From TrEMBL, chain A:
<dbReference type="GO" id="GO:0004758">
    <property type="term" value="F:serine C-palmitoyltransferase activity"/>
</dbReference>
<feature type="domain" description="Aminotransferase class I/classII large">
    <location>
        <begin position="152"/>
        <end position="451"/>
    </location>
</feature>
<keyword id="KW-0808">Transferase</keyword>
<protein>
    <recommendedName>
        <fullName>serine C-palmitoyltransferase</fullName>
        <ecNumber>2.3.1.50</ecNumber>
    </recommendedName>
</protein>
<dbReference type="GO" id="GO:0046512">
    <property type="term" value="P:sphingosine biosynthetic process"/>
</dbReference>
<dbReference type="InterPro" id="IPR004839">
    <property type="entry name" value="Aminotransferase_I/II_large"/>
</dbReference>
<comment type="pathway">
    <text>Lipid metabolism; sphingolipid metabolism.</text>
</comment>
<comment type="pathway">
    <text>Sphingolipid metabolism.</text>
</comment>
<keyword id="KW-0746">Sphingolipid metabolism</keyword>
Automatic annotation (TrEMBL), chain B:
<keyword id="KW-0256">Endoplasmic reticulum</keyword>
<dbReference type="GO" id="GO:0030170">
    <property type="term" value="F:pyridoxal phosphate binding"/>
</dbReference>
<keyword id="KW-0012">Acyltransferase</keyword>
<comment type="pathway">
    <text>Lipid metabolism; sphingolipid metabolism.</text>
</comment>
<comment type="similarity">
    <text>Belongs to the class-II pyridoxal-phosphate-dependent aminotransferase family.</text>
</comment>
<dbReference type="GO" id="GO:0017059">
    <property type="term" value="C:serine palmitoyltransferase complex"/>
</dbReference>
<feature type="region of interest" description="Disordered">
    <location>
        <begin position="1"/>
        <end position="53"/>
    </location>
</feature>
<dbReference type="InterPro" id="IPR001917">
    <property type="entry name" value="Aminotrans_II_pyridoxalP_BS"/>
</dbReference>
<feature type="domain" description="Aminotransferase class I/classII large">
    <location>
        <begin position="603"/>
        <end position="701"/>
    </location>
</feature>
Length: 546, 738
């Protein structure tokens, strides 16, 4: 027997036969004290309630197989480690974690040299900021961009029915102020649901023709929050490549599986839907939520969605349609109900209609109209609805008033359509193909993809400056040409228009630069005609010489 | 109490002392010069220039808090000028809130009955010592609409309570004797914890059982949770379990429909449910209740008064629409004016306004940080911050709520390790914290954070959604409260919903940062701009907190902001007592006419000091009654812990259907998981300057009643409710909660 043998058996031996010869004499007192120590622990352990159970468990688990016990011990250690581990990820345990001494950390902290919070503005940035006009006095169809400047016709602000300067809405707002004050002082869950919120929701849903509606206090936040309230990780979203920035943000937050189809291309949409279907069949698995996301009138170019075709595909492939009508609500259809009215499709067949009260009704906020289930779900699960103060009372009552006006005065929409027609006719001669008579123009300067009845008109340059190989647009140069046109119409024709503003480098697909025109039905025909002529002249002047 | 004393004492802290005779080098606001390096500190306590700041702040509070027995003897030239000011105010015809024509309480602090809360007037004819319940009910019959005192004010008592006793005022300011965070968290008894856990387990088990049988026996009711016709369920039964089985039981406590102004009181529609809270039917009647639920810290939610008149003028001039995005020709002169005023108000170079408070965070953070940047966020940060960080694509680390040691540990960790895997240094590190946490009532330890910032070179994004207007002697948020220079914080964010009675939010910072945000923020480019009436409400309410110069004198230190001084501006800057001054009248819209009490800042100051008193009083009082209360005593948000989920609807209902003799209904907000950790469900009081002391007394009585009944006094009760009410001023001025 060597000294390195199992100490327990040695101790047993020591205890039973202390006179055993094979243990060296100096070790004997040590071993005996060890034995008595172990005996004390054992006695103590037996006194602990429940100890027989543990002993029995260990014995039954041991079963003459030390590996088994070792495995259990290992599992126990692993469980303890998991429990003790930090909650957040990257808590300093990852593979790439490097253990450093305090001194080294101090040195690294001293060396840490972060970038400034905001870098110096580039020339392009300054150009962007400097060209933002400030309106002095009230907004509307006639505005001033300096306190004593000349009056300009405003083609930059969405004001399709002239609600901005509507006196009846001002009266309603003052009445509301006298009863409700200004702010609501709380989210809708905590005493922020005023009776008029319920009323405007009912007004919107009955106007559009859906079961219910829910209002938000900002249209942009609505779009980026309502989508992720439904679409979650693992769900499928098929979206038009041309959708607006708010939708992009909503898609990004949703973490869903996003498939893009070519802008406005229904064949491509069907192809994407078929691909998804094929993939699902191949992989099998659980049925997931599937959404098609598109806009009624696209904010980025004014094109219209082919809603009948989308409805057909959506039903065929069992998708839900999220339709962003922030531009088309209050602009399209005989009463401004949006593109559902334009195409004569019942709005209740669209699963979710997102609309803006700031654009179409000239108040503020947005709404989502749909079934009772859809709206109720958002009241609890949509972050911008739950965690934000509710819409100020006067904006809600004015929205109700505007809907009342839209319902009772269909001539608002006809005069808007007339004005759009007059304006488009002026510009038609500069387009490559005249949208009215189909004639071909070889000296075309601009292209207007916007729908012919759309109050939102985007004008793109036909021959934008490109890099030498012609592959890429020189966006900055193009924008400065457009700005030249904006400045030119302001000085020569007293028009206020704007080029579309973009968040370059933050967009998923960089939209091309364009001029953005909003026609109002409240403008006189003469003004609109002159505006069209003025813009035409300015475009010819700036781009024609090349 | 002699009237002259009241005037002078209440004026002791009134800001616009520089209106008349004070020398120009004197600081404008004696109460705010906390920075000990500032030479101006001497003026505050006359000859004790080198006193430590603690001593000074306690002295300030003594000055601000006159007592009946000790008419303030510390008459300085500040007081003299202030009384001049208040005589000017009296001459004004439309001076409306600090009513000079009313009676003051002559209450004796020893009286221990309901009458002790009642200000003389109606109650004086009654025998105070033995009121019967019927008498009390009669006195309180129109309690919310009619004040006990006579007043000429045009502001409705139901929206903004009239409370004239100058003793019931306090200045919200950091007292270094008082810890920013409680040294030890209050713990409930283990029995409560156990029953809470058991309650939740029970709820979950019963919920699953109901689901199990419901799906089999009543499939129609579960149709929207099941896949049908090839469509997956919009909302799976698992995801909605909490909502359907737990929240629905409390449904009546949430989203009660209301009407009118959410001021001191609010009118609720009565409703009933016959189908286990799935739907509610309005009964057709309404109840006016005392409102301790809305975020109306300074009581600017009002349908009458100077601000409302300004808003009316604005609607006539501008209409209601903010129209399109800011960059698309929808930037009005009013927007620029508001932004200039907000920048002045918070003490930053430049500011930007956004039409929604939530969107202020969610659209700004992505413009500041991106890939390769790190955001360090408090675990209790608001959902909008989390939304913004997710959009930004920056990495995220969160630290334990307000735990500065944990923050420092994470900072050392992330700076030394760099980015994951690549170990490159982070491009920027942005710390996102809130000034005042809306569910906890806890304050940020700003001095400590700034210390860490100097060492670790991160940037600070401070969300002051709840603290702006509500904290600090000048109402400028936590920077003001702690007396630190707001420009040490890189980005200040806040909302207009809570203190200013409007809606929307702002971002403020250096000009360079703000310019970048104007270009890159989603909101300026794509979101609608904030509408003109809201802007007017912001300008009017903010202007009235700041005071407008003229009539106030422009403080000399602010001149250098106008770049009119070049050579000697350095010396001027060094004299700057504070960055907070009155609003120069030239940055306000010329058409806006405000009454004198708003222009000279008396009204705003009064509101700040009433809010500070109310907050401290209720928070201290509830602690004395034995409730577990979270948060700092200066916080206007006061969370009272309930724990057991079953007590939540009861608490809410019993506050509404009062048992006490006064029968005044009170609406409260109960908050549970997921807004709070599972077991610490709570009721949250949001106090306002519009509450009178009598209102707070009522809340204390009501809580005492209900707390006794529901067994919610988890701590040790050291005072009875009558003792608390009679010693309100002592409780407020005590520097320790114990």
């Amino acid at each position: 027997m060597s000294v390195v043998q199992n100490p327990v058996s040695t101790m047993m031996a020591t205890a039973q036969s202390p006179s055993s010869t094979e243990i060296p004499a100096p070790l004997i007192p040590l071993l005996s004290s060890l034995t008595s120590f172990i005996y004390t622990i054992e006695k103590f352990f037996n006194r602990v309630p429940g100890s027989p159970i543990i002993v029995r468990y260990i014995k039954s688990s041991y079963q003459n197989d030390p590996w088994r016990s070792l495995l259990e011990l290992f599992l126990l250690a692993f469980a303890i480690r998991t429990v003790l581990k930090g909650r957040t990820r990257g808590e300093g345990e990852g593979k790439s974690f490097i253990k450093l001494t305090e001194k080294e950390i101090d040195e690294l902290v001293d060396d840490f040299n972060p970038l400034p919070l905001a870098d110096d503005p580039t020339p392009a940035d300054s150009f962007t900021l400097d060209t933002v006009p400030t309106i002095h006095g009230p907004n509307g169809i006639k505005v001033k961009t300096s306190p004593n400047g000349k009056t300009l016709l405003n083609l930059a602000t969405p004001n399709w029915c002239g609600f901005i300067e509507n006196d009846k809405m001002k009266d309603v707002a003052i009445q509301t102020l006298k009863h409700y004050g200004v702010g609501t002082c709380g989210p809708s869950g905590f005493y922020g649901t005023i009776d008029i919120h319920t009323k405007v929701e009912a007004d919107i849903s009955s106007f559009i023709g859906t079961e219910a509606a829910i209002i938000y206090s900002q249209a942009f936040a609505l779009v980026s929050s309502a989508i992720p309230a439904f679409a979650k990780r693992g769900d499928i979203i098929v979206a038009d490549r041309g959708v607006n920035f708010g939708i992009h943000k909503g898609l990004q937050i949703s973490r869903s599986n996003i498939k893009w189809y070519a802008h406005g291309d229904m064949k491509d949409l069907e192809r994407v839907l078929q691909n998804v279907e094929r993939e699902r069949k191949r992989k099998g698995g659980k049925l997931t939520k599937k959404f098609i996301v598109a806009e009624g009138i696209f904010e980025n170019d004014g094109m219209i969605l082919d809603l009948p075709k989308v409805m057909e595909l959506k039903k065929k492939y069992k998708y839900r349609l999220i339709l962003d009508e922030c531009q088309s609500f209050g602009m399209m259809g005989a009463h401004g109900r949006g593109i559902t009215e334009h195409y004569g499709i019942p709005a209740s067949e669209v699963d979710m209609i997102l609309g803006s009260m700031a654009n179409g009704l000239a108040t503020g906020g947005g709404f989502c109209a749909g079934s009772q289930v859809v709206c109720q779900h958002q009241r609890i699960n949509s972050s911008a609805s739950v965690f934000s103060a509710s819409l100020p009372a006067m904006l809600a009552t004015c929205a109700s008033a505007a809907i009342e006006i839209l319902k009772s005065q269909p001539n608002l929409m006809t005069s808007l359509q007339n004005n759009i027609l007059i304006f488009r006719q002026q510009l038609a001669k500069l387009e490559p193909e005249n949208p009215f008579d189909g004639s071909i123009n070889k000296d075309a300067l601009i292209s207007i993809p916007s729908f012919i009845n759309s109050g939102l008109i985007h004008i793109f340059l036909l021959n934008p400056p490109t890099t030498e190989d012609g592959a890429n647009h020189l966006l900055e140069e193009e924008e400065s040409i457009l700005q030249e046109i904006v400045d030119e119409v302001m000085t020569s024709s007293n028009l206020l228009i704007t080029r579309s503003r973009r968040l370059r480098s933050q967009e998923i697909f960089e939209p091309e630069p364009s001029l953005k025109i909003n026609i109002s039905g409240y403008m006189s025909k003469k003004d609109v005609e002159n505006a069209g002529k003025g813009l035409k002249a300015a475009i010819i002047k700036v781009c024609g010489s090349e | 109490m002699p009237r002259s004393t009241r005037k002078s004492t209440s004026g002791a802290s009134t800001p616009p002392s520089s209106l008349s005779s004070s020398p120009p080098t004197k600081p404008l606001y004696p109460t705010i010069s906390l920075r000990s390096s500032s030479p101006s500190s001497s003026s505050n306590n006359n000859n004790n220039g080198n006193t430590m700041s603690t001593a000074r702040s306690s002295l300030i509070n003594v000055l601000n808090r006159p007592h009946h027995s000790t008419p303030s003897t510390s008459i300085s030239n500040t007081i003299v000028t202030a009384s001049k000011l208040s005589s000017i105010a009296t001459n004004s015809t439309d001076f409306n809130s600090s009513d000079e024509d009313t009676l003051y309480s002559d209450q004796s602090t020893a009286a221990s009955s309901y009458a002790s809360s009642i200000i003389s007037g109606t109650a004086s004819s009654l025998d105070k010592s033995n009121l019967t319940s019927a008498d009390i009910a009669k006195i309180y019959e129109n309690y919310l609409e009619k004040p006990f005192v006579n007043t000429k004010s045009t502001i409705k008592h139901s929206e903004f309570g009239h409370c004239n006793n100058p003793n019931w005022r306090w200045t919200s300011q950091w007292n270094t004797d008082e810890p920013i965070h409680p040294t030890e968290e209050p713990h409930p008894p283990y029995f409560t914890l156990l029953t809470t856990y058991i309650s939740y387990i029970l709820l979950i088990v019963i919920g699953h059982m109901r689901d199990f049988f419901g799906k089999r026996f009543r499939p129609a009711e579960y149709a929207h949770l099941m896949p049908q016709n090839g469509y997956a369920a919009l909302n799976s039964d698992f995801d909605s379990f909490y909502t359907r089985r737990l929240k629905q039981r409390l449904e009546d406590c949430f989203a009660r429909p209301v009407t009118g102004v959410a001021g001191r009181s609010i009118v609720c529609y009565d409703r009933l449910s016959t189908d286990e809270n799935k739907t509610f039917n309005l009964t057709g009647t309404t109840t006016r209740a005392l409102n301790v639920s809305s975020y109306n810290y300074l009581g600017f939610a009002s349908s009458t008064g100077g601000c409302a008149d300004a808003v009316e003028a604005c609607i006539k001039k501008y209409g209601v629409s903010g129209a399109g995005p800011r960059h698309d020709a929808s930037t009005l002169d009013l927007h620029t004016q508001t932004e200039n005023l907000v920048a002045r108000f918070v003490g930053q170079e430049s500011a930007m306004v956004v039409s929604m408070g939530y969107a202020t965070n969610s659209t700004t953070i992505p413009a500041l940080v991106g890939k390769g940047c790190l955001v360090i966020s408090d675990e209790f940060n608001h959902a909008s911050i989390r939304f913004g960080v997710r959009l930004s694509g920056a990495s995220l680390r969160s630290f334990k709520h307000n735990d500065m040691d944990d923050l420092e540990r994470i900072l050392r960790d992330v700076i030394s390790q760099g980015q994951p895997r690549t170990h490159r240094p982070w491009k920027k590190i942005l710390l996102i914290v809130e000034g005042l946490y809306s569910m906890e009532g806890s304050l940020l330890n700003l001095p400590h954070v700034l210390e860490l910032k100097r060492r670790y070179k991160f940037y600070i994004y401070l969300d002051e959604a709840h603290s702006i207007g509500a904290m600090g002697p000048n109402g400028r948020g936590v920077c003001d409260y702690f007396g630190v220079d707001p420009r040490e914080v890189d980005i200040l964010m806040g909302t207009f919903t809570k203190s200013f009675g409007a809606a929307g939010g702002y971002i403020a910072g250096s000009k360079q940062v703000m310019d970048r945000l104007r270009i890159r923020s989603h909101a300026t480019c794509y979101a609608e701009s904030i509408s003109p009436p809201l802007l007017t409400q912001i300008i009017a309410s903010m202007g009235s907190i700041m005071g407008v110069a003229p009539p106030l004198a422009t403080p000399p230190a602010l001149i250098d902001d106008d770049k009119s001084l070049s050579g000697d501006s350095v010396s001027v800057r060094s004299l700057r007592p504070t960055v907070y001054g009155p609003a120069p009248s030239h940055i306000l819209p010329t058409w806006m006419k405000l009454p004198l009490n708003l222009l000279n800042g008396t009204e705003g100051r009064e509101r700040l000091r009433r809010l500070a008193f109310n907050s401290r009083y209720l928070s201290s009082g509830l602690r004395k009654l034995g409730f577990i209360v979270y948060g700092h005593r200066d916080s206007p948000i006061i969370p009272l812990l309930i724990y057991n989920p079953g007590k939540m609807p009861w608490f809410s209902q019993l506050m509404l259907d009062r048992l006490g003799p006064d029968k005044t209904p009170i609406v409260v907000v109960v908050v549970a998981y997921p807004a709070t950790p599972l077991i610490t469900s709570r009721v949250r009081f949001c106090l306002s300057a519009s509450h009178t002391k009598n209102d707070i007394d009522l809340i204390l009585r009501a809580c005492d009643e209900v707390g006794e009944l529901l067994g919610m006094k988890y701590g040790k009760q050291t005072m009875t409710v009558e003792e608390v009410i009679s010693s309100a001023e002592e409780l407020v001025s005590a520097s320790h909660a114990e």
